[in-house]
Amino acid sequence: MPALEVNPDLQKERNTATFDPHEFSVYWAGGEERYKEKKALEKLFLEDPALKDDLPTSYMSHKELYENSLRKACLIGEKIRKLRADGEDGVDTYNALLGGSLGAALLKEGNPLSLHYVMFVPTIMGQGTMDQQVEWLPKAWDCEIIGTYAQTELGHGTFLRGLETRADYDASTQEFVINTPTRSAYKWWPGGLGHTANHAVVVAQLYTKGEFRGLAPFIVQLRDLETHQPMKGIDIGDIGTKLGMKGVNNGYLGLKNVRVPLNNMLMKNQQVLPDGTYVAPKNSVLTYGTMMFVRCALIRDTAYSLSKASTIATRYSAVRRQSPIDPSQPEPQIMDHTTQQLKLFPQIAKAIVFKTTGDGIWSMYNVLSGEIELGNLDRLPEMHALSCCLKAICSADATAGVETCRLSCGGHGYMDCSNFPTIYGMTTAVCTYEGENTVMLLQTARYLVKVYGQALNGEQLVPTVAYINEAIKLQEFVNFDGSLESIVKAFQFVAANKVRVAYEQIEVRRKQGHGVEVSANLSGPLLTSAADLHGRAFLAQSAYTELTQVAKHVSPALADVLKVVLELYLVDACLNRIGDFLRFINLTDKDVTNLETRLESCLNRLRPNAVALVDSFDLHDRVLDSALGAYDGNVYERIFESTKKNPLNKEPVNAAFHKYLKPFMKANL
Amino acid sequence: MPALEVNPDLQKERNTATFDPHEFSVYWAGGEERYKEKKALEKLFLEDPALKDDLPTSYMSHKELYENSLRKACLIGEKIRKLRADGEDGVDTYNALLGGSLGAALLKEGNPLSLHYVMFVPTIMGQGTMDQQVEWLPKAWDCEIIGTYAQTELGHGTFLRGLETRADYDASTQEFVINTPTRSAYKWWPGGLGHTANHAVVVAQLYTKGEFRGLAPFIVQLRDLETHQPMKGIDIGDIGTKLGMKGVNNGYLGLKNVRVPLNNMLMKNQQVLPDGTYVAPKNSVLTYGTMMFVRCALIRDTAYSLSKASTIATRYSAVRRQSPIDPSQPEPQIMDHTTQQLKLFPQIAKAIVFKTTGDGIWSMYNVLSGEIELGNLDRLPEMHALSCCLKAICSADATAGVETCRLSCGGHGYMDCSNFPTIYGMTTAVCTYEGENTVMLLQTARYLVKVYGQALNGEQLVPTVAYINEAIKLQEFVNFDGSLESIVKAFQFVAANKVRVAYEQIEVRRKQGHGVEVSANLSGPLLTSAADLHGRAFLAQSAYTELTQVAKHVSPALADVLKVVLELYLVDACLNRIGDFLRFINLTDKDVTNLETRLESCLNRLRPNAVALVDSFDLHDRVLDSALGAYDGNVYERIFESTKKNPLNKEPVNAAFHKYLKPFMKANL
To answer: Is A317 near chain B, with CB under 8 Å?
Structure first.
């Protein structure tokens, strides 16, 4: 499509914004240097014609989509190889290329080689001995072997202890014999496992000398390196089509008496000696670290999803005109409808808050990692609890936010050319993988209930839950004045009381004679909602701290906008949980009305800068891949353009007319 | 797949249920006779091998999917033709075959001929003169011509007055000249328009004698009946892939000086005489009737979606075992986790309440139709307001409910073989079509605010809003005792107060100098939430009335179950809006705790009958089309079975290995 002028309504928005989007873009990218790196990477990958699709993936069959995905994954892999040779590959580069930003522009339905880079190689690095790393890493880095990570099974996911795949050590040959003894033991889901990987780290229940030892990781060759035929005892394939991530080649794997040498068990943390003697890991909590690492990364991913969805919907809402507000006036930009603002602007605010919170958590995680290396595990349970509930809340909110944005675009959001369906598929998956959200909230809640008991005993609490102690002392929350500080404090007070209610309810059950676990199960809904409030209190505090801090270091114009974003985020968050606020804090009808009026005021004040804010997210048109959300705002032209790529439209009369419809029409004549 | 024994966990659930599902199934189908008709229709259509797909649609390309859909649509049309010849076609038959029940089993991504039956033919019947009906209906009924209904445009949907397509009457040739003058005037979305229909009812702005006359419907031939080539001036095609309804062949249509004879304007309500004289319709509100008819039908569709989703998730939750509640016990059925019950059971309850409410509204609509025919339009605004907000609430709740069910199945719900992605696509579309949900709520709200003014003036109010008058008198809600009656009354009191707040806020704006429309726009969020509460108060009342009534006429065993369903529905609905309750009613913390405890109790009491309840929905395995939800509960076997249909698994090594992956792996060697 030839370059088009920017839609005048959209241009007007940009002309009248009160701040410079570029300033925010640089902050958003992580500083001037990262911003430049980002732009360079975009140039390198997005201007390569071999990485552009003429046919959108939604028109392809599942098989075509896989083949095209693998083609492009190899081209990307080739470029990564070159970056690596030049020493220009870093964690940020891998994140961008394999994740939701640049990766989505290149392979919008996911990359069948992703797990090789983000799980197979890192697992060998993290869990292999130095010798094992020397043996496997060069081949893996050079992609002479392609790996994946096979843990989840058809019958078990989040509950790891339930995994059924087993590895029995045979000291006579110094081999492990790996089996998936039942159908539900089949490995299920690993990306690239279907037809792409020739190796996998397989997680199995370890038995030596006839005794159960717990879970252990094994490197297993799945396919012949020359012919790609499955190895003996390996039953392997693609699990089928899915709601999203359609190009990832998720696979299944059955193992029948598959033998691997002793040295294929990754032994950095635990060892099996040649005679079968088992040496337990010094520290079983180390694996928590990896899970936390991934969950922290996911929080930033959810911000990314929201930034994409809100950019598309906001730009569209500046271009689309519909339904007069005042019958004597022409149809307004739909963004002038207050109900539309209420759909869009909180998603923009959440994108920003989740991003800054994700960055903050990332820093906390790095500090913690250092402490763990030194053997100090004090803050591990606290961080684990926090990362669990934030993963759940941010993924659930982002999923809902993406759908709100889609629905705000009416029917056009339903078309694949809007890109909402793909963004939704990617985003909602986060609710399930790396720990299902309800399970995550229950893990946080278990920690909170324990902490509440400590608080009752007068013990001091660690920083992220210290508010519970304050709330216990406070008894009643007074002087709610609607200030941002006051909303943050109120969130903490409400969260503490939700924990109290869950704690007391469990105590009631126990007095009725139930065991502690059964009592906790009966109070499950109270526990999850307590964990939810804990996470939201943290987000409120984090939003306040981080954005106030950022505002101090940017231009006054940008600072003013960020203050409105913060206020909108907090007031909206409060109104979304107003039932809990009213239950535990003596708010009047007038207080609630004031909050509602302020919400409307925030929407109103953000309106002039909405387009500039999403422009600041600096998302390349290829990343957005949306007829509704392109930078130039030529929505209708781009929708039209998309119909030209539709294979059905390549011929005026489809063969099915002559084959089926015409005989049917003529049958009665 | 050979017939399998029922999964023992599922069988156990059936053995221990306290009521007979068949009794409820008969009620659900609408009585003994309809139940038999339903079974006969299922037999006729589902046992026809030509209507079974070997390849699931999710593996097909868009083009393959269309061709396969048209093939089956013609086979179904042939059977319909036969039923019609035998006098066995009724509204219920068309509903079943073209809608979400049997229709979904036959063409899960929708039928490209649906709009021919449900819009093209009925529009000619409803808006054509007797002469026009004689001319067009026989050909249409016999499918000698295939039609669709083209109203929505690329630039305008819900706001009909904004449509741009125009028809200018040329008295010199007694023809209309129809044009889509801009790109945004293109007709967009009509099902079957892309490559299937050869005729359409095109809605256009009518001009005669140079004067604008309003919207009118025209029959336009789109394609040659022999060659299927587009007619002169017709630009036509498929709009592209979408989130769901992928087989419907939604199309676009541009018209350039397309001339149709005078008689092609459907003239039952308004006429153009040969000289161009325009005769206005006697009653412009008649079109409201059709919209209301469709919205009432949609309420039942949302119940249908929920029944499907909850059946799949409930059966799966009886089969899947995961995460011990008590560590000393084996992993329980996941339905024993209270948090899982909270996901599933409210959806079952909503399916039942939406169905009975839909039936009730249907009866109200029929009474109203009779009144309108007699020229009595008194209840039209009331029914319009009610149908708008119920359409919005039920579609939004059903969409959320389907996703809750999907997420409750963890990763497996993400696979297409669960059928959740397709059910979601079908369900969420209802939020947008036939009146976008926010616009619907605003229409209801506009009515409510007007009514509130009448109430303040001491006027009597029509039945569905009479509670507003009571609430005004009441001032304060006292004696909330948690009884079901009390919850219903409290809902009405809260709804009335939400209307009051919106009304007062608009008054404040007006006193600030804003016009009434601008004031209403500023208060948009208050208006939509008032309409939401109005609809929910109606649903609460309807649930109470209808289910209490049904319980009187069924066996005591079934009546007991329905009472739990009702209580669960009301308590859950109340807790979901607890913020509004606490704001307007002086509830204590103890009151809320009591509601929470009752919710848990309801879940607990429903648990033994959950599987029997979803069995009662009597959904054929082909309708469910879900590896997770089949009647026999052989979840893992069916998931496995589904992978065998995957074209990628037909060969152990995909061609892309040799073409792309192997060269990439070897490049560095």
So the answer is: no
| Burial status of residue A549 (CB atoms within 10 A of its CB: 0-12, 13-18, 19 or more) | exposed
> ipTM score here?
0.97
Return the axis-axis angle of helices B32-46 and B62-85, rounded to nearest 10°. 130
**Is A109 labeled as catalytic in the residue annotation?**
no
pLDDT of residue A50: 94
Parallel/antiparallel/unpaired status of strands A147-150 and A187-188: unpaired
Q: Are strands B271-272 and B278-279 parallel, antiparallel or unpaired?
A: antiparallel
**Per-residue b or e along A354-363, where b marks 16 or more CB atoms closer than 10 Å to that residue's CB:** bbbbbbbbee
HSE (side-chain half, CA atoms, 13 Å) at B580: 26
Chain A interface disruption, residue of B53, B74, B320, B503, most A CBs within 10 A? B74
pLDDT in tens, A32-62: 999 999 999 999 999 999 999 899 999 999 9
Catalytic residue among B23, B135, B403, B434: B434
Q: Cβ contacts (< 8 Å) between A517 and chain B: which residues? A: 324-327
Spatial neighbors of A198 by CB under 8 A, at least 6 apart, are: A145, A146, A147, A221, A222, A223, A224, A225, A228
Residues of B in contact with A73 (CB under 8 A): 660
Provide the terminal-to-terminal Cα distance of chain B, rounded to the nearest Å.
47
Q: What's residue B285's pLDDT?
A: 60
- Which residues in chain A are closer than 8 Å to B600, comparing Cβ atoms? 522-523, 525
Give the DSSP H/E element, type plus range, for residue B102.
helix B102-106
- Please identify which of the residues A23, A403, A434, A507 carries the catalytic annotation: A434
Predicted confidence band of residue A292 (pLDDT cuts 50, 70, 90):
confident
Burial (CB < 10 A; 0-12, 13-18, 19+), residue A369, is middle
Q: What is the DSSP string of A405-434?
A: HHHHTGGGGGBGGGSHHHHHHHHHHTTTTT
**CB B502, CB B522: distance < 8 Å:** no
CB B197 within 8 A of CB B148: yes
pLDDT band at residue A286 using 50, 70 and 90 as cut-offs: low
Can you give the pLDDT at residue A288? 67
Is there a contact between A154 and B228 if contact means CB atoms under 8 Å apart? no
Q: How far is CA B179 from CA A16, A205, A225, B165, B203, in A?
A: 37, 70, 62, 6, 11
* Residues 212 through 271 of chain A touching chain B, CB cutoff 8 Å: 225, 227-230, 237-244, 252
Q: Is the entire prediction scored with pTM above 0.90?
A: yes
> Where are the alpha helices (H) located in B153-285, listed in sequence order?
none
Nearest to residue A310, comparing CAs of A357, A352, A356?
A352
Give whole-number Cα distances, B462 to B289, B379, B447, in Å: 19, 8, 12
pLDDT single digits (tens) A253-274? 999 999 999 999 999 989 999 9
In sequence order, what are the beta bridge partners of B199?
B147, B221
- The pLDDT of residue B287 is 63
Rounded to 5°, the CA angle B517-B518-B520 comes to: 65
In the predicted model, residues of chain B with pLDDT beneath 70 are 1-2, 284-288, 669
From chain B, the residues in CB contact with A526 under 8 A are 596
A88 touches B: beta carbon within 8 Å: no
Number of H helices, E strands in chain B: 26, 11
Give per-residue pLDDT as tens, A60-117.
Answer: 999 999 999 999 999 999 999 999 999 888 888 888 888 878 999 999 999 999 999 9
Residues B422 and B248: beta-carbon distance below 8 Å = no
Is residue B303 classed as helix, strand or coil in its secondary structure?
helix
